[in-house]
Specification:
Organism: Methyloligella halotolerans
CATH architecture of the domain at 21-85: Sandwich
InterPro entries: Znf_CHCC
Distance between the termini: 19 Å
Strand order of the largest sheet: 5-6-2-7
Domain Zinc finger CHCC-type: 38-73
CATH class of the domain at 21-85: Mainly Beta
CATH topology of the domain at 21-85: HSP40/DNAj peptide-binding domain
Number of helices: 0
Protein name: Zinc-finger domain protein
Low-confidence stretches: 1-11
Strand content: 15-25%
Structural class: mainly beta
Pfam family, one: zf-CHCC
Largest sheet: 4 strands, mixed
Length: 99
Amino acid sequence: MLNVIESADLTGTRDMAQTVVPHYVNDKGVDRIKVGVKEFQCMGASPPFDHPHVFLDMGSGTQLVCPYCSTLYIYDPKLAAEETEPEGCVYVATEPAGA
């Protein structure tokens, strides 16, 4: 499963390599997905039916529509990065890219 690493180094800052950006898919074809982060990638559907992977950032807002698949993402602070409502919308790669 996707792991979000939030460990700080000795200075209290995080390196980019220590953070994993969640990837979400909408294989169920729902109109909205609740997520626990404000920065993520939308893939549309799982490969090979995915659209171009786009990095989305809600900024100070709590909702965002993917420009490719029109899925409405709603921020829910009660959810962890690897949780979605409905369940099963987190993409976990099982093979290296290009395999």
